[in-house]
Amino acid sequence: MKTKTDYSKVGPGIDGAAAPGRKTGPRRWLWPVAGLATLAVLILVVAVACGGSDSGESGSKTEAIKTAHGPSALVDGVPRGYTHDKAGARTAAVNFEQAMGHARSGRLDASALREHAVGENPSPALQSVLDNATDRVEHEDTVFNGVPLVATVTNFTPEAATVSIWTEGIAQTRTGGPDSPMGVSTSYSTTTVTLAWEGEDWKATDWAFEPGPKPEDARFPEDGPLSQPGGQGLYVFYRD
């Protein structure tokens, strides 16, 4: 009668015995030691790459982050540091729109956004949006996230850029009283952000907003931003 194998014992071979042909002895400890050494090196590399650094600005802490076209740092929660090219401008515009949405929701200080991401001479439209976002209070029962779908650089020079961002807005809020279920709604809009290259970075100088178009629209205006090729990748900054 065949004896059943007991698999409850853990070991390099069946029933805790060494597998046939496998040598036992001190050499078996080399792999765990080498693995621990490799893990220690990886931890050190990650710590160096992700470690924070002082920006030198009063009351501001900069945390280093790594993306292809920026941002390269966060200052007071505001993303900064973009490459001086179309991709950097496109990424800066997308992240500025994201940060503006957080400011309007009370999740980001609008004054910090104004200080670190806005140019010296903002347009009246941009100034008005910033003023409306100042001193907002976050409401836990209401969540709004703008998800950029297509970002197109419609004009670009080394000194200035204009970026059109087609966005899907997703809102979540209670349908009634405090104990009512959460409801979800979606909307679509187009935001145009004008940027200037100031202080070795892209800064927002103008802002325009209009609703639509909806995805079911069969055609877009031939001279509209969506009729032009958009960016192949969006490096989006999300802030908890």
UniProtKB/TrEMBL annotation:
| InterPro entries, per the entry | DUF8175
Which parts of the sequence belong to the DUF8175 domain? 66-205
Region described as Disordered: spans on this chain = 1-22, 212-232
**Which Pfam families did the record assign?**
DUF8175 (PF26526)
**Domain of life, per the record?**
Bacteria
- Membrane spanning stretches: 29-49
Q: Which UniProt keywords apply?
A: Membrane, Transmembrane, Transmembrane helix
* Biased amino acid composition, Basic and acidic residues: 213-222
The UniProt entry's coiled-coil ranges are none
Q: What is this protein called?
A: DUF8175 domain-containing protein
> Which taxonomic lineage is given here?
Bacteria, Bacillati, Actinomycetota, Actinomycetes, Mycobacteriales
